[in-house]
Specification:
alpha+beta; Methylamine Dehydrogenase, Chain H; four-stranded antiparallel β-sheet; 35 helices; 44 strands; globular; monoatomic ion channel activity; Ion_trans_dom; Ion transport domain-containing protein
């Protein structure tokens, strides 16, 4: 084995010696052969090694050894045809290893073989490990019914008896993804198309970060960061910010990589975690010197405790080959065939302390001197290159740990308690000084102004002095406050969080400043406004406790509020110009700019978000969420920004170029998200059943034949109801209660041959039972029949990042009463659905969960409709009273269920509910049948009026369910949108009709309430009814009335104002019979009113009304209105029908959604956008190059862009002529 020693001479020259020292002593572990693989258990209690040359496995107990050489307690010889590729061990000594297509598991305690309760046919195992809970996780290839191999993740519980482990989880990795590794923290690391994905098995949450993937890649993570090492570069990805905050750190830079050892999570990247030859680390002088130091410190420690053998001396030049275990923070080295355990973190900490002391001596000396210089001194300090590098990398470490402020939350919480216990509120405290080590902070406040000065101790002429390093002055917009009072006491308290970080509490809130030693600059990293303009000690204490409980008692600092930006322009500029701060606080800042109508600031933030996205399309798409998160505010104040954003980001992608793939024709605008890992855990019972089915074939062939015959007979019997059977299996397959694993069992280490062959249903019947085989056969042939030819498609990204997500913190009770909403629910704007992105977003929601819940709602309403209509319509001689009563009770129950959702909708947003006509219609459709049914049951009276209206509203409500389909939905959308547009015209028309009805009522109403026959009242109904005279035999007519028709309530409709209104409505529709009973010659006033009504309303206003209808219909006769209507339906389903935890499922509500688009349809859509002038809508678009790439792929020439270019060329030529 190759041993490496590194020495550092006085001239900082690195000398590397390699010595070969091989010992073939047969008494040593592995018979002295080289160790190939070494693995540590999840919690660092046991270790196993494997030697390829010796084909042996050795176990080492490390739990009771603090440091030094380990002793082996287990040995096993591997007698397989193939060498071991992967090995792992649990804390309770369960050993598992992979060799080719075999997985073997042994209990080291009793040397017994452990079996799995599900053994699936496979091609190859890829990975195996134990997690921290002792569960066994492995990945292998499993073949499906189409003979296609998929990678399957299996999770087994090891806490079982009889040496048999029970499967508790199955997960399917998408076909386009490759497995990188499985972490003992239940995390999968996958790669696809230069993307790396972290997927948590327990929470099923994922993080994706994009980088050009190479072969040498290593990953580790904690709750805040994901760390990657690709070759010699380290990338640190923030989980909270969802961007890489350090994108390229070269570990070959010894000083830089040395300082990163302050971050234990990086050990697995900077130190090997397996016995492989690492060219990057082996050629790194700094790493060799660090490991030499740690090794010698270990030997010195053992020698002092008399635990070191004589043949191992601290001055030995032989250094073991190490691996690192992040859980225990120990390294394990191999030397002379034995495993050594070393306290790496403790050794490195000691080395860092010594190095820091050395650096402090090089930078500052004489720290105990009390001499100081004036505040205006600004002499520069000249550091050595090494110290400069050390300071620079200290900033990297602080940046990672300080930026999110989580490490200081305990200190901040304690500071609130200290500030609230101030004994006296001084009115002269305008200057405060804090000193820690070699840094002095001076804080001055002068009425709405905060001045900070940083001093460093240096030695000048053998005397210690404070030298001014930098200064910062912040002025706050506090004009509304009394500046004199502010001057008396602006500061309430302060606290040093570290040497370079300070917390300051003032009358306007909490500040956190950071001093950057690299560029000598003080930055305001945090400002939270609180109104603490209080002069009473007890009131201040009470106020601080209130703010602490409300905002600062959590694990992270609260986001800056509105007044934080309003009071400090510098804070606004810092957040806007700092990339990470913009991402963390950008939503609040943009909201502030919108509310304050600061258009220039809005444009700056908008542009910076687009620029950051353009800088790194792969990783910076999260910046777009700043814009999308403020869409509700933009819709209220500046809706044109929504259209602008929609047009500028339509047809974008978060990759460097567009890719064309061939997909089915029906996948246009089909939406999906990455990674699409499928949870098949529900199919564990099905998998066990199929395994049992095949075992029956192997062990009890006769019973197997009998079972198949019975299944065939049952299949023939259920053929009449086969649709129900197929739908049932479809639902089970859709929700993964069954799977299509192609199971093969081992029998005497030989794969069993097919069960049944050459049957009419094909080879699919070889793998499953008769029922499943029948379903898969019908399903596959149906899909084959329905499948269409493929067409080229391009994948786009929906730019509404985090638009559909719900807040993660919620209360179950209040979520049922008044649920929290997502941005999708809050704002349903037509500007958002004018591009394909909005439609693709709706398609994703509809296909994921919307259509299934909508069908369930529809079916339950059909049950209500059927029960009530049957009881109300069928004559009683055909239905018994008991059945009728049961139907009415069912109607009441179903009605209350539907009504409860309407009540929840009213509670959620009463104003929005009232403004939606369909909601009012819905509640009438539910309340009337409920009331009618209860009334019928209680009184046993069949009220036909109530029944008729109840049936009418129920029938129309049934029709409204068709509005979700585009063919019907467009017309429903037109009906509502047209009413909304002409509602004020209808109000004007109604007022005019009411006025005419009033006029006719006064003119034509009888003078007396008594309607007895009187000659002197022309409006008396007895005087306007038809009269009949007698015709004598000689043909003469008797002048006296012979017969008078008795008047009814409708003879004179103007006797009551209500019927007068109805008469005007009839006149409006063309029925003037209500006015035909009077003589027009004797009633000129009546004629004038009729003419005015006809000309003003019937002729003019009604024709105007028809014209407005045409205009409104033309405006809303498009798909946008239909999509808005469908979005409202989906929003209602989300809020009222999904459970609170379902609204947090990442599979249903992902942060980023993608969609396919048909190539030919893209061509047409882009041409349409160009013709409409909407393709290049942004005057400073940062994604123009991306869109140009799409135009090139579509072979489209943008004449508008060419014309603009020609115009610019002409201007340049013209300017040149003028200059000449």
């Amino acid at each position: 084995m190759s041993d490496i020693s590194v020495k550092i001479n006085d001239n900082d020259k690195f000398i590397i010696n390699k010595n070969m020292n091989i010992n073939n002593n047969a008494d040593k572990p592995h018979n002295g052969k080289p160790i190939t693989i070494m693995r540590v258990s999840p919690n660092g209690k046991y270790l196993v090694t494997y030697s390829k040359d010796d084909e042996s496995i050795v176990g080492w107990n490390i739990a009771n050894v603090e440091e030094g050489q380990l002793k082996s307690d287990y040995s096993r010889t591997h007698k397989g045809y193939h060498e071991i590729e992967e090995i792992c061990v649990s804390d309770d000594k369960k050993l598992a290893y992979i060799h080719d297509i075999y997985l073997e598991i042994i209990d080291i305690n009793n040397n017994q073989i452990i079996e799995l309760n599900a053994k699936i046919s496979h091609l190859k195992y890829h990975y195996c490990t134990f997690n921290l809970k002792g569960e066994f996780i492995f990945c292998n290839d499993v073949k499906n019914r189409h003979r296609i191999y998929h990678k399957i993740i299996w999770v087994y519980s090891t806490q079982t008896k009889n040496n048999k482990w029970i499967c508790k989880g199955i997960y399917k990795i998408p076909k386009d993804f490759e497995l990188i590794s499985i972490s003992k923290y239940d995390k999968l690391y996958l790669s696809s198309n230069n993307n790396i994905y972290e997927w948590n098995i327990l929470t099923e949450k994922s993080h994706d970060f994009r980088w050009r993937i190479k072969k040498d890649i290593r990953i580790s993570s904690n709750e805040k960061f994901i760390y990657l090492r690709i070759k010699n570069k380290i990338i640190i990805y923030s989980i909270e910010l969802k961007i890489p905050i350090i994108s390229s750190l070269d570990i070959n830079n010894g000083i830089k990589s040395y300082n990163l050892l302050n971050i234990p999570e990086l050990y697995t990247l900077l130190l090997p975690d397996e016995l492989i030859h690492d060219d990057v680390l082996s050629s790194n002088r700094m790493w060799n010197s660090i490991m030499e130091y740690c090794w010698k410190e270990c030997l010195n420690h053992l020698e002092k405790n008399y635990q070191l053998q004589k043949k191992y001396q601290p001055d030995s030049s032989t250094i073991p080959q190490f691996i690192f275990d992040i859980k225990t923070k120990y390294t394990f080295g191999i030397l002379d065939g034995y495993v050594w355990k070393i306290k790496l973190e403790e050794r490195i900490s000691k080395m860092n302390e010594n190095n820091n002391k050395l650096n402090n001596e090089m930078i500052v000396k004489g720290l105990d001197s009390e001499d100081s210089s004036s505040d205006d001194e600004a002499d520069k300090i000249i550091d050595s290159d090494m110290c400069t590098s050390n300071v620079e990398n200290k900033e990297i470490y602080k940046y990672l740990n300080i930026y999110l402020f989580n490490p200081y939350m305990n200190t901040i919480n304690a500071s609130f308690q200290e500030f609230s216990e101030i004994n006296e509120l001084s009115t002269k405290n305008t200057k405060q000084v804090l000193i820690q080590n070699s840094t002095k902070w001076v804080i001055k406040s002068t009425g709405g102004e905060l001045k900070l000065l940083i001093f460093k101790k240096i030695i000048i002429n053998k005397r210690n002095k404070w030298k001014l390093i930098c200064m910062r002055i912040d002025k706050f917009n506090v004009q509304e406050y009394d500046l004199y009072e502010f001057h008396k006491r602006f500061l309430h308290g302060n606290k040093l969080l570290s040497e370079n970080d300070i917390l300051i509490l003032t009358k306007i809130g909490l500040f956190i400043y950071h001093f950057n030693e690299n560029n000598n600059f003080i930055s305001l990293n945090y400002f939270y406004y609180m109104n603490l303009n209080i002069y009473n000690k007890y009131e201040l204490m009470k106020n601080l406790q209130y703010h602490y409980k409300k905002s600062f008692s959590k694990s992270t600092l609260p986001l800056p509020n509105y007044n934080s930006f309003k009071l400090s322009d510098k804070w606004v500029l810092y957040v806007k110009d700092n990339r990470e701060s913009l991402l963390k606080y950008g939503v609040e800042l943009l909201s502030f700019a919108i509310k304050e109508h600061r258009l220039e600031l809005m444009d700056d933030i908008y542009r910076k978000c687009i620029i950051h996205f353009k800088e790194d399309l792969r990783n910076n798409k999260i910046f777009l969420s700043i814009i999308t998160s403020t869409i509700p505010l933009l819709n209220e104040y500046y809706p044109e920004y929504i259209l602008r954003y929609s047009l500028e980001t339509t047809m974008v992608i978060d990759s460097l170029s567009y890719t064309i793939k061939y997909q089915d024709n029906n996948l246009h605008l089909y939406s999906f998200h990455y990674p699409q890992i499928i949870n098949l855990t529900q199919s564990i019972l099905w998998t066990k059943y199929i395994i049992l089915y095949h075992k029956l074939y192997i062990k009890h062939y006769t019973l197997f034949i009998i079972l198949n015959v019975i299944q065939c007979l049952l299949l023939l019997l259920i053929l009449p109801i086969s649709p129900i059977f197929l739908v049932t299996f479809y639902i089970l397959s859709k929700y993964h209660f069954i799977n299509d694993f192609n199971i093969r069992l081992y029998k005497n280490n030989i794969v069993d041959i097919a069960l049944l062959t050459d049957n009419i249903f094909g080879t699919i019947f070889n793998e499953y039972d008769i029922f499943a085989s029948f379903y898969f056969y019908i399903n596959d042939n149906f899909l084959k029949y329905m499948s269409k030819s493929t067409t080229p498609t391009i994948t786009f990204m929906i730019p509404y990042i985090k638009f559909v997500n719900y807040p993660q913190n919620y209360n179950w009770f209040w979520e049922f009463i008044r649920p929290q909403s997502s941005l999708f629910v809050k704002i349903i704007s037509e500007n958002k659905y004018k591009t394909w992105d909005g439609e693709a977003l709706i398609n994703f929601k509809w296909n994921t969960y919307g259509k299934y819940y909508y069908v369930m709602i529809w079916m339950s309403f059909i049950a209500l409709l059927g029960c009530f209509n049957v009881s109300a319509t069928i004559p009683q001689q055909y239905i018994s009273k008991d059945v009728q009563k049961q139907l009415l009770i069912t109607s009441i129950i179903l009605g209350f269920i539907h009504l409860s959702f309407e009540v929840r909708q009213i509670i959620y947003n009463p104003i929005k509910w009232i403004c939606n006509f369909w909601n009012i219609f819905d509640i009438i459709a539910y309340v009337l049948p409920i009331f009618t049914s209860i009334y019928w049951i209680q009184t046993d009276v069949r009220n036909i009026q109530l029944l008729s209206f109840s049936c009418l509203f129920l029938d129309i409500k049934f029709l409204l369910f068709f509005r979700v389909f585009e063919s019907f939905g467009i017309y429903f959308a037109i009906i509502i949108s047209v009413v909304k547009q002409i509602v004020y015209f209808l109000v004007v028309l109604l007022i005019i009709i009411i006025s005419f009805a009033h006029a006719f009522y006064i003119l034509l109403s009888p003078t007396e309430i008594d309607f007895s026959f009187k000659e002197n009242d022309p409006n008396n109904p007895w005087n306007i009814v038809p009269t009949y005279k007698e015709v004598l035999d000689n043909g003469a007519i008797n002048s006296n009335s012979y017969i008078i028709q008795q008047p009814d309530d409708n003879t004179n409709m103007f006797t009551d104002y209500r019927t007068s209104l109805f008469a005007m409505y009839l006149f409006l529709t063309g029925d003037s019979s209500a006015l035909s009973n009077w003589s027009y010659i004797n009633n000129p006033s009546l004629v004038i009113l009729i003419v005015l009504f006809s000309l003003l309303i019937v002729v003019y206003l009604m024709n105007l009304f028809i014209g407005l209808l045409n205009m409104a219909i033309a405006k809303d006769n498009n798909r946008v209105s239909y999509l808005i209507q469908k979005a409202e339906i989906l929003a209602e389903i989300e809020l009222l029908y999904l459970l609170p935890n379902q609204r947090r499922w990442k599979a249903w509500f992902p942060e980023t959604i993608y969609y396919y688009a048909n190539f030919d349809k893209i061509h047409k859509e882009v041409k349409k956008l160009i013709n409409d002038g909407q393709w290049d809508a942004d005057e400073f678009s940062e994604i123009r190059e991306m869109k140009q790439d799409l135009l090139n792929k579509l072979n489209i020439r943008n004449d508008e862009t060419d014309q603009q270019l020609l115009k610019e060329i002409r201007e340049i030529l013209l300017n040149n002529k003028k200059n000449k």
